[in-house]
Amino acid sequence: MPTLLEAFEQHLRLERRRGALTTARYRAIVDDFARHLVSDPETSSLRLTDLTRLHCIGFLRSPTRKAMQEPSRSVWNQRLSALRSFFRWFLEQELIVKDPTHGIERHKIAASEPIPLSLGELFDLVDAAERSSPAFRSRNTAIVLVLFNTALRVRELVSLNIEQIEWDAGLFRDVRTKGDKRLCAKFPPVVAAALQRHLAERVGRHPTSSGAIFLSMRGTRFSVRAVEELVRELGRKAGISRPVTPHLLRHSCATILSEGGTMIKVIQGICGHAFQATTERYIHARAGADRVAIDTLGELVANGLAARRQERALAA
Questions:
Q1: Of these four, 40, 72, 115, 218, which has the most CB atoms within 10 Å of its CB?
Q2: What is the pLDDT of residue 66?
């Protein structure tokens, strides 16, 4: 079994091109599945070809190690995705003739739609960053502005190196993104100014012209969790009533671009989405947006009619 699990992990990483996090999560779930089978005398001696739908459901419903209760719907779905990938790979290898996860349904989850930041709330967030201690003021401000203006994911942000900045073109070159893809993330002058200020001010503490753009107090690359905690704390200091996360800044970027009239295809490219349907989920209609749209349309019609009538009056 350990050899099969290692081969499965290699399949995910090299053939399916899954990211490191997804590969590690799937491997951990399949490891848990193997332990679940071994821990029960009735299933400990079963072969792969003996496993049935009921064996899989028994694992899907088993308590997690952190909580001695039936897992949540999201945990069920994560486990099911990993098992499906695992057994489909077995089918491809002709190690089994039937997928025991076939017919097991995912649980529906009512996703709560995030409320993106308004521009005013973004300005409040930047103000909070600029009230940080002098040692981290420029870094924190640059992080907020980069996240919002580029729609980068937090993992993409912390992966950025100084040598990836192309100042003349206003972009981060060769950013490694989800699915092990690469993109060029463009940024506006306001971000360039914030980055230049940050890099100039950190020279005294970390005198290097290469390596990570964003460093911790110890001079190491800023971690994903540290950025998440920073943004959340800045949101609280800014007086924003709902939790602020790097991903919310990504949603906010897409929404405000859409409200400004940017075509969805362009937003898709900025966000690095493979499918337009994914981008559509990032764009949220604000309360009262229909009123604004209808009034704007009415104003266009009224102005057009007035101009037409004036033309007729002059012609008469």
A1: 115
A2: 61
Write the pLDDT tens digit of every residue in 87-139. Answer: 999 888 888 888 999 989 988 876 667 888 988 999 999 999 999 999 899 99
User: Model's pTM, two decimal places?
Assistant: 0.65
Q: Write out pLDDT tens, residues 64-90.
A: 766 566 788 888 999 999 999 999 998
Q: Partners of 185 in the beta sheet?
A: 172
Please provide the DSSP assignment of 175-209 as one string.
EEEGGGEEEEEE--HHHHHHHHHHHHHHTTTS--S
* Domains of the chain: residue spans and CATH: 2-92 (no CATH), 119-282 (1.10.443.10)
Q: How far is CA 245 from CA 69, 116, 136, in A?
A: 29, 10, 19
Nearest to 56 by CA among 72, 74, 76, 26: 76
Output the CA torsion 34→37→39→44 (10° steps): -110
Sequence-ordered alpha helix ranges (H) in the chain: 2-10, 20-39, 53-60, 73-92, 119-130, 137-150, 154-159, 189-202, 224-237, 246-259, 264-271, 276-282, 289-315
